[in-house]
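Objective 1b. Sequence-to-structure analysis of Hexosyltransferase.
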Amino acid sequence: MARLTIERWFSRSYRFQCTTFIKCILCLIILYPLNVKFGMQYYIWTERSFENEYHLRMTRIDITKLDEENPEKVLGVPKYIVSNTFIINNEYLCNNGDSETVNNPHLLILVKSAVEKWTARQAIRMTWAKKEFLEKNNIKLAFFLGTLRSKTMSSSANGQNFSVEKESQYYKDIIQIDKVDFHYHNSYKMVMMLRWISQYCSSKSRHLPDNDLRKYVLFVDDDYFIDLTSLLIYINKIDEDLHMTSYERQTFLTGYVYQRSRPRRLLNDRWYISINDYPYEHYPPYATGGCFLMTRSSARLFNIASKYIPLFRFCDVYMGLLAYSMSIKLIPNNDLFSSYDSSSILLTNQTRILSRSKSFFTNSINLNSTSKLICIHGYRGKELIRIWNDIYQTNLTLSVIN
């Protein structure tokens, strides 16, 4: 009897162990691919400390000792030169078509776009970047393009084919580089923007470097609604700030700034980055690439730094890495520079949005106001035209090049 009881007990124990073992194996089979997909193993075992390790390995650029005319004297031979060239350089944009004119604009706006996004560019020209407003306020605007991803892709608008060359000749606001338009090529485009500013829209070559301390560049994507009046109010406040030092103006960069943002390890995430490409636990502070403002003097420094810091997949993080290498502290203005999509936030209450948007554009200039959004994300092409018509009670429709 006792022997039978023991055998039964061992039999039950054996079955329990087998069942438990099988369950564990099944859990591992299920959890491992999920673990890999969601990148949890990086958070726990693999990621390195940004402060302790990146800080020790990074290239340091001391801008206080930098000779902008000859940076190689301090930094050595550049290690990372982007080999792209300008197809359309629009070299006299900042000088009113005259190479001898020292008439750089107070504000330069560079809009990242793509060849096929003609409707987005045309909507911007017809709404917040009207030619009359730009000329009145000493603003220059250019669209920064790459090339088509495929020769078979059509560059058409409202059924009409057109070429970038024709658009450039007609509007004189196109800059094009020989790099395919693709989201992950935006870092190349950013480097070329900085290069273009340094070569064609800088007072450095005119021996007036301090002039660039109060000249500004707005970098913006073609799906943003920009309140230029609010932007000019903000710039005017900066210009009149007597407590702002020359160094602060020289390194000025502001926008919607992310602090200690974590890398995305989810494999199907648009912002995915592998542990091999970026092994650290968080990014340096960076301003969202969709809309940010800097002085032209600062743009020249970033252009120099780009030759000594390797390109990174995401252009906004790349700018953060450049700033970190130069010990430049970004200025957060998250209440002025929106990084959110209008479709998910602003369009949830159409009545509230329209009344709020109308207040942006009908309020008189108030230098003490700091509550007006400068950038609103999520309006491109026909959607931008629609919201403009709603705000101003106009009846604009997209026009085409004749």
